[in-house]
Each structure stands twice: as structure tokens, then as C-alpha cells.
């Protein structure tokens, strides 16, 4: 392998370092989200997504290690592994984003259907009451979803940013 320009080498190391930092942040976010989702009752689907995030972060960290070794020691095969791996992971992420955008309306309908199965909301959990307080809304469609037991989270306050 020919002698590489020192500035090209340094630039590559800086870019690899930034990618490694971002993937470490993704790994930290995955750990935090996993701990947060563990407290919820039915989070099997979300935890599967967290496991995918673990794998993506680990693969990116591993690829950046290959890239850093390839640049530092000037090993061609390590740079090829890094380049091919990053291209494939970028294509995978692009495909997952396209799939997510395509199924966004279906996910909305599924969530609405799941919450409509809770009607009447009298039997709903505190979790739904907390969501109403945070989002300043009442019920799924309107306050009528609660029948005659309207909770305190449906009461309007003066400091509300979204008045009733």
C-alpha cells in the first residue's frame, strides 16, 4: 500500500472517531430505553426494536474499530471491511427507514384500534390518564369516551397551552 497523505489519514481518524461517538451514544440510548421499557407491562415488540438497536450499534462500533486499525497500521483488508460494512449498513438503514415510512399509517391505525378496544375508558390504567395530562387531551375521540366517570386529567386548566 502506498504512503498515504498525513492530512487524509488524520481526517479519516476524525471521521471514524465521530462515527464511534455517535454509535456509543446510540448504544447508551438503547440501554436507557431498555431500562425504561422494562417497567412497562406489555413491551415485547418495543424490546425487539431495542435489540435491533443493540446490534446496529455494536456492528458500527466493530466496523469503526476495523477502520481505525486499517488507517493506523495501513492494512488494506481492514479498510475494505470497514468500507463494505459501512455501505451495507447504510443500505440496511435506508431500507428500514423506507419500510418505516411506508407502514406509518398502518401503525397509527393499529395503535388507534388497540386503544379503541379499551373503551369504555373507565377501566383504563393510570398510564392513559398520565398521557392525557401530558398531551392535554381527553379520551381517544373526545371526553365522551369516559362515559360518566371523567377523570381529573380531562379538566381544563388556566395554564393549558391547548385550551379545551
Automatic annotation (TrEMBL):
It is found in: Membrane. SUPFAM superfamilies: Tetraspanin (SSF48652). GO terms for cellular component: plasma membrane. One of its GO terms (biological process) is regulation of vascular endothelial growth factor signaling pathway. Its main location: membrane. It is a multi-pass membrane protein. The keyword Nucleus does not apply. This is Tetraspanin.
Amino acid at each position: 500500500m502506498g504512503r498515504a497523505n498525513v492530512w487524509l489519514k488524520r481526517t479519516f481518524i476524525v471521521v471514524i472517531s465521530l462515527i464511534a461517538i455517535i454509535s456509543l451514544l446510540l448504544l447508551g440510548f438503547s440501554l436507557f430505553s431498555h431500562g425504561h421499557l422494562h417497567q412497562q407491562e406489555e413491551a415485547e415488540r418495543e424490546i425487539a426494536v431495542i435489540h435491533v438497536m443493540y446490534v446496529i450499534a455494536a456492528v458500527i462500533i466493530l466496523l469503526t474499530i476495523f477502520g481505525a486499525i486499517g488507517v493506523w497500521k495501513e492494512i488494506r483488508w481492514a479498510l475494505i471491511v470497514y468500507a463494505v460494512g459501512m455501505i451495507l449498513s447504510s443500505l440496511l438503514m435506508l431500507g428500514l427507514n423506507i419500510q418505516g415510512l411506508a407502514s406509518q399509517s398502518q401503525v397509527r391505525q393499529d395503535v388507534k384500534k388497540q386503544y379503541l378496544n379499551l373503551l369504555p375508558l373507565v377501566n383504563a390504567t393510570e398510564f392513559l390518564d398520565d398521557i392525557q395530562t401530558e398531551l392535554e387531551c381527553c379520551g381517544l375521540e373526545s371526553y365522551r369516551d369516559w362515559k360518566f366517570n371523567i377523570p381529573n386529567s380531562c379538566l381544563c386548566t388556566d395554564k393549558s397551552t391547548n385550551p379545551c
